[in-house]
Amino acid sequence: MYTFFRPVVLARPRALWALACAAVFALAAPLAAQAQAAYPDKPIRFVVPYPPGGGTDVVARIVQPRLQALLGQSIVIENRGGAGGSLGTDIAAKAAPDGYTVLFTLSSHTINPAIFPKLPYDTIKDFEPVGLVASLPQLLAATPSLQVRSVADLVAQAKAAPDKFSFASVGNGSPGHLAGELMVLRTGAKMAHIPYRGGGPAVTDVIGGQVPLLWVSIPAAAAQVKAGKLHALAVSTVKRSPAFPDVPTMQEAGVPDFEVDSWYAMLVPAKTPRAIIDKLNKALNTVLAEPAVRTQLLDQGADAVGGTPEALAKVIAAELPKWMKLAKDANIKAD
Length: 335
Description:
Blueprint: H1 13-38, E1 44-48, H2 55-71, E2 75-79, H3 86-93, E3 101-106, H4 108-115, E4 127-142, H5 151-160, E5 166-169, H6 175-187, E6 192-195, H7 199-207, E7 213-217, H8 218-226, E8 231-235, E9 261-269, H9 274-288, H10 291-299, E10 303-304, H11 309-329
Parallel strand pairs: 1-2, 1-3, 5-6, 5-7
Antiparallel strand pairs: 3-9, 4-7, 4-8, 4-9, 4-10
Helix pairs in contact: 2-8, 2-9, 4-11
């Protein structure tokens, strides 16, 4: 008598692979959720794509201590200046999307695509917005030895001696760069752009007289203006700055259709979990609602903003075509 055994049919390799993947995902999902719930459980890195002493660095250091206290972890500020902010931005774009690397930047984020044709990152696709931090005008300041006391005086002298005048900024693609180029476009006064690697070095050279003029965010130059080391001529927004209420706007100074508003914001690498983004956003808004922080920002000429990640996303989407048009109209290129 013979006993017949039914052959065992092995599962197809593709089916086994699908089962294995499902098992891995089943195990990974709770672990990922647990990691997000525990966030942050180690220090957070703020990549500031400009050197110490500039406006972005100043604003980052105003909110840093209170964010540390709320999140329960230290925040390390890493200044990575260069290439108009795109060097540090690229470092942040390529970081792990785990919430432990945050890009703390300014509105150059939306300007750089207009003047740098081949950025190593995608301004929209490679980042997730966290929230706006503050907004403020750019400040036009002169070295006191220049003997220029108004925008009208500056324009008249620049037209009479076009090779004499140049303006410094924190770098190619910075709001100060665009403010200076817009000034040239609107007034017809020829002035060369001198890009620096940040606000600190630019301010130092203008104080020393190496460059006669400076377009920079107010936090980077407020102390030097108040000390008489720089002379403030105008601000770039349509409203005067509370930090310098006696300094006129460019439009008040006789330059029509002039407005350059700059902002600071926090972003994280693309694919950062939404739960982590929401935790960072909540902490940011809590900090910006504190009277002491708002006063510190106001002392630097900046208004606290806050808001949702979606609000920042709308600002970025709206400004990209705006700066593209200005770069084309004024023929602005990276120096």
